[in-house]
Amino acid sequence: MEYSRKNFSEWYNEIVELSELTDKRYPVKGMNVWMPYGFDLMRNIDEMVRERFRSDDFGEVMFPALISRTMFEVEFEHIKGFEKELFWITKGGRETLEDDLAMRPTSEAAMYPMFRLWIRDHSDLPLRLFQVVQVWRYETKHTRPFMRSRDIHFTECHTAHENFNDAEAQLQTYRDEWNYFTHMLCLPFMEVERPDWDKFPGAVYTRAFDTIMPSGRTLQIGTIHQYGQNFARNYDVKFARENGESEYVFQTTFGMSERLVAAVVSIHGDDKGLILPPYVAPVQVVIVPIPGKSESLASYTSEIFRKVRELGIRAKIDARDSYTPGYKYNFWEMKGVPLRIEIGDREVEEKSLTLRLRTEKGRIKMALSDISGLGDMLEKVSDTLRARALKILEDNLSGTAGEGQESRIETHVLCNRKECSDSMEKRTELTMMGHIMNRGKEGKCEVCGNEGRTSLFSRPY
Hints:
Blueprint: H1 8-18, E1 22-23, E2 33-34, H2 36-55, E3 59-60, E4 66-68, H3 69-73, H4 77-82, E5 88-92, E6 95-103, H5 108-118, E7 127-136, E8 151-161, H6 164-185, E9 190-193, E10 205-212, E11 218-228, H7 230-235, E12 238-240, E13 246-248, E14 250-257, H8 259-268, E15 285-289, H9 297-310, E16 315-317, H10 325-334, E17 339-343, H11 345-350, E18 352-357, E19 364-367, H12 374-397, E20 410-414, H13 418-428, E21 431-436, E22 442-444, E23 451-458
Parallel strand pairs: 3-7, 15-16, 15-17
Antiparallel strand pairs: 1-2, 4-6, 5-6, 7-8, 8-14, 9-10, 9-21, 10-11, 11-14, 12-13, 17-18, 18-19, 20-23, 21-23, 22-23
């Protein structure tokens, strides 16, 4: 590769194309083409999410992409939070539309008029729905694939409950789900409660899941929101209690996007290219036969391929005869395949395999009879990625910047007052992201002396 990961921005822009995750040449700013390898990665993440949500009693839906201006005007501060980001459709063919249509930036305005029709009494609750869709936001800042796009691959959950405590319990379920997702993606995170002036428009409170990138900047990779009855009041979403009394439902949401791909690429990659977590890698094991004297190379390679597939591992044979083994090694390392199997004359004769883990130097010999141990090898790659990623986060939290970082993070104990936040932002020249709930501690605000909590200051993407 031409660029070093120490120059993160150039490295990132190059690797997402060289590894064939995306093609940025689509002639609409901020909109890129998902290439097959990149979409396989995203689809594996989607299927992980789908499987978990279904096990937690969510139903999957697919709502229309268009939302009328009338539907948006129902909303209170929510629409104000998105009004600068909406794409509007004002004509159908040559005719001016009676009601302008917006491409969904998120789906509250699309879903909740239907919730009003579907929810009648307490037996209809809880309602748990999710969808995996595209959303569109008119991003005016510098766009970057997977981090900041105008059309976004998005997963959103929406729930409705009888009372606030049930909604709070749902938020804890979201946290359990998030812990599972990030464990499989080998991504550490901070749960940060956004300040009131930066919470999701219309929410009672917002918790964001932020991670720290190799550049020293933070990336929001997921959010959960407690809506209370705010949206229900505006969309008149009510249910009848057992005693017949009418009550507004309590609602929550959980959102994540293609930024998960951005985090996986950025945090795990190195100067050779991607390193993909085995659980979601499109190709978990690549088998590279090395031509030699053995006439049994092809049949032995096929035997290994069959046994690997029988283990439930996604595998591929690279038998291209127009490329050298060295070229193939570099090619699959760049694409982040967790484990490579090399097969030559010696391996055929010895009934063995030569392994190379993407996270390790050197090679490992394995007898064919021990091939069931490949699963453990893949888990070793995952463990290494988790440890490396956690070190990046903890080093930055402790004030140790990595080589070549373009920014830094700081933590300060702060109260909830915006005046104190503004003062600390001016002092640090960083943005106050919110209180860190899964790390840090309570204490005295460093500005006013009132009760506070460890807060994150960073330069976010």
